[in-house]
Amino acid sequence: MKQNLKDAGLKVTLPRLAVLKILADSEQRHMSVEEVYQALLAAGERVGLATVYRVLTQLGDAGIVEQHDFNDGHAVFELAGEEHHDHMIDLDTGQIIEFSNEIIESLQHEVAAAHGMELVDHELVLYVRKPRH
Amino acid sequence: MKQNLKDAGLKVTLPRLAVLKILADSEQRHMSVEEVYQALLAAGERVGLATVYRVLTQLGDAGIVEQHDFNDGHAVFELAGEEHHDHMIDLDTGQIIEFSNEIIESLQHEVAAAHGMELVDHELVLYVRKPRH
DNA sequence: AATCTTAATGCGAATACTTATCATTCCAAT
DNA sequence: ATTGGAATGATAAGTATTCGCATTAAGATT
User: Fold this and answer.
1) Which residues make beta-bridge pairs with B89?
2) Are B109 and A127 in contact, with CB atoms under 8 Å apart?
3) DSSP state letters, A3-23
């Protein structure tokens, strides 16, 4: 955890370690800034909200966490895992389901290439619902 | 244009017609709320900003326009066209490129189905860049 | 270990975008 | 033309995020 920060050229500070620990220990894989902030307070850490924003953004730039802006008004963050995945959101419950599909991934590269571009990043969100009955 | 509104059960009012006309006549397919608002003022229409927000949201709910929340802080709207498409954003220029891929579309349905869900909507954005050299 | 240099932090103010409030106006059915 | 209710305009309020700056703390240097 310390090493992650050093590798990214970031100083090892208490707020940064604390945020990483919250993300690592949390039940929920995806946490909003407010949720991380509240969890920090609950854990007895005295960090400012602005710092939580800054730290999460930095960790995002460093590739240590991933940021997603689903269409519900606030960003959510998750520890950058081993393997890439996309998200499916249940419109009724708000539940976030992760999935990955190799073919979609490679088709995205193809589409970009077909337009003379190279794929840097992408965001795919499926809004779904349990079929009735 | 009037008929679109009536079909959606919306009263035919001046602001609604004006917004639709702006979207139809604009050079750019994708417009932010502010851009629509400014275009309305430039066209001599006296509509309030709040109304532009309301009207665009309603037109979105009615399926007459599509709303996209790209990761740049503000929503953009476009007239709902004939055929569906997704978007590719040039990270260097900000240019929005449209594309469509049948296979990706059907795979999305498959993925949802594989999780016992039905696909209601989706948002796919590719962040791309022109290869160097 | 004490000092120093600079980046990092905490706090509140500020910003950006969007929604709510509510009196007034306009649509469209009579 | 009248009228009931939905739509609008102006502005206040709300929500998420960033900024400004004095203070603090990391970690390099002595």
Assistant:
1) B96, B127
2) no
3) HHHHHTT----HHHHHHHHHH
pLDDT at B72: 82
Give the pairing of strands B31-32 and B65-68: unpaired
Interface with A, mutate which of B68, B97, B120, B130 (most A CBs under 10 A): B120
> A108: part of which helix (H) or strand (E)?
helix A102-114
pLDDT tens digits for range B50-107: 999 999 999 999 999 999 998 888 999 999 987 899 999 998 888 999 999 999 999 9
In the predicted model, what is the mean pLDDT of chain A?
A: 94
DSSP B125: E
pLDDT at A53: 98
Q: What is the CA radius of gyration of chain B?
A: 17
First to last CA, chain A: 46
pTM (global) more than 0.85: yes
Q: Counting every residue, how long is chain A?
A: 133
The pairing of beta strand B86-90 with beta strand B65-68: unpaired
- The angle that helices B49-61 and B33-42 make with each other, rounded to 10 degrees, is 120
User: Is residue A31 packed enough to be buried (19+ CB in 10 Å), middle (13-18) or exposed (0-12)?
Assistant: buried
Interatomic CA–C1' length for residue B40 and nucleotide C30, angstroms: 34
| Angstroms from B124 CA to nearest CA on chain A | 4
Helix (H) or strand (E) holding A77: strand A76-79
